[in-house]
Amino acid sequence: MFVLPEALLLARLQFAFTVSFHFLFPAITIGLASYLAVLEGLWLKTGREAYLDLFRYWVKIFALVFSMGVVSGIVMSYQFGTNWAVFSDKAGPIIGPLMAYEVLTAFFLEAGFLGVMLFGMQRVGKRLHFTATLMVALGTFVSAFWILSVNSWMQTPTGYALNANGQFISAGSWLAIIFNPSFPYRLMHTVSAAYLTTAFLVGGVGAWHLLKDRENPRSRIMFSMAMWMAAIFAPMQVVLGDMHGINTLEHQPVKVMAMEGHYQSHANGAPLILFGIPNSARNRVDYAIEIPKLSSLILKHDINAPLAGLDTIPKENQPPVGIVFWSFRIMVGLGFLMAGLGLLSLYARARGKLYHWTGLHRFALLMAPSGLIAVLAGWVTTEVGRQPWTITGLLRTVDSASPLAAPAVAASLVAFVLVYFAVFGAGIVYILKLMAKPPGAHEPEPPHIPVRTAGITPAAAIMPAIASPQGSHQS
């Protein structure tokens, strides 16, 4: 029997689980593809074999992460058709073409050049191979472009009209749909986050190996490049986050109210609540530790600027404040820790201690997964903060779900959890084993010919016999 609240909750949990799992892999591949392009470019420019060794070291990891990202992403389309059929029907005329553009441009670009990048170094010229690596890096960015355009349109829908069947269609300009108000800020913030995710992952691996052997030149290069990225992009991410926050205040003020924990309106400057326990039953943040008027200064750049609170929003239109409040603080807290590590690395570099400061290396190792945690926290803030809407202000989540029975959704959710942890868990363990091995001189590259997943085909055994004189005589 169909019970809407139970089935809806299970469908949301299933999508949250699968999309969060999937999001980890593109967060790595977007930055890692560009890192590989930089490594190969430096090798071609300088001729230093250490750069080529690092390229071969990380390209194997990239291939595994990329493949797991592709496989985990396929499940998204399955869920759109089963658990969210009403959403697919109503938003399909807009969402469908944008997703098709992602496949026709980004995925085809990545897939077309990935094989050359992985297996073609000894088969094509150095320039062509470098071009393939650049195309794969470009493909990951283009993929992020289209996916974030889709998600941003759901957050800040523009350029649409409704047809006679209640479906969202283009009002005439696809540019208004693609470049919706939140898209540029979301694109910059997310891509920068992906670069930071890769930087701290690479930096953590480099720190791990420096703790074992400080004289390994490849570990030194790895760690140094990662710390330069941390020192440059982490402060930049703070600025991009501020721009994104101001844009969100303009177009999705309710989300900002939940992020800030502003249950009440403030007519003469709103405080910045650092920590506390959101209490939606009593419309307050218990045990709040706050700085007076700082929220108005950050969001409005005016210490006395008024800010509206959730008391101006009907209860049925408010997101779950506790989740948004804490996921936002996890993301911001990790962002400041990243910036701190970047600044600390600059100090160590200036003092000549970048490769010999054990405390810095341990800090970097501890921060290795911080980018992954931060992007997940940011994703939760974005998606949960949009509730109770799938398309902000236009289509509610409760009206987007398929008429499924709760046991059916529960069964598929359990199946996904078991399969994901078994298959992707094994893949992640193998990746960690590759990372645990230090990069060495003359790092082995992937085989020149891809391994057949189905083993040796019958044709491979028959052809030598047919080609031999004895075989021809017998036939």
UniProtKB/TrEMBL annotation:
Membrane topology of this protein: Multi-pass membrane protein
Protein species of origin: Actimicrobium antarcticum
Domain of life the protein comes from: Bacteria
Name of this chain's protein: Cytochrome ubiquinol oxidase subunit I
Alphabetical list of InterPro entries matching this protein: Cyt-d_ubiquinol_oxidase_su_1
Record key words, sorted: Cell membrane, Electron transport, Heme, Iron, Membrane, Metal-binding, Transmembrane, Transmembrane helix, Transport
Membership in a protein family: Belongs to the cytochrome ubiquinol oxidase subunit 1 family.
PANTHER family assigned: CYTOCHROME BD MENAQUINOL OXIDASE SUBUNIT I-RELATED, CYTOCHROME D UBIQUINOL OXIDASE
Segments passing through the bilayer: 15-36, 57-78, 98-121, 128-148, 193-211, 223-240, 323-348, 360-380, 404-432
Pfam families linked to this entry: Cyt_bd_oxida_I
Record localization: Cell inner membrane; Cell membrane
